[in-house]
């Protein structure tokens, strides 16, 4: 399931195959439990997204101002589970923190792109660490980082 037609994150989770549903639900719950300062959980780009709503940041996302400002997303891909965190791309301190914590808790380096963390096996997903990563920014922190580094 790359892109879902689900209307809500809960519906997305219910549509997942049994072998993915539990870990994706745990990730979703860890993220939502740790979000700070006004982020909301919505469907964004066909996956559960955690965004700054237009009521807080009326400008929206520079790529499509009709969309709220994205912060994090989750996706169940064919070969792996993806966690997208825009702050890892925008703030080197957040990336350095995550890499250090991942090495300490899991060992080695994560399979990553610029803001995408890929997990091939559900039992190797550091759920608590992903939750802590969600709490690294408030909406005000994220808006400031976004305007400073991404939106130009």
UniProtKB/TrEMBL annotation:
SUPFAM superfamilies: YdhG-like (SSF159888). Pfam families: DUF1801 (PF08818). Residues 20-133 form the YdhG-like domain. It comes from the Bacteria. This is DUF1801 domain-containing protein.
């Amino acid at each position: 399931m790359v892109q879902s037609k689900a209307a809500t994150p809960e519906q997305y989770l219910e549509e997942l195959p049994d072998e993915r549903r539990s870990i994706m639900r745990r990730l979703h719950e860890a993220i939502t439990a740790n979000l700070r300062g006004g982020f909301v959980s919505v469907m964004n780009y066909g996956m559960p997204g955690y965004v700054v709503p237009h009521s807080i940041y009326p400008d929206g996302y520079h790529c499509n101002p009709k969309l709220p400002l994205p912060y994090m997303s989750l996706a169940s891909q064919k070969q792996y589970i993806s966690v997208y965190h825009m702050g890892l791309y925008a703030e080197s301190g957040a990336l350095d923190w995550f890499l250090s914590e991942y090495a300490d808790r899991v060992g080695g380096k994560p399979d990553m792109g610029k803001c995408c963390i890929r997990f091939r096996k559900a039992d190797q997903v550091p759920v608590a660490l992903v939750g802590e990563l969600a709490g690294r920014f408030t909406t005000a922190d994220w808006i400031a980082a976004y305007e400073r580094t991404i939106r130009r």
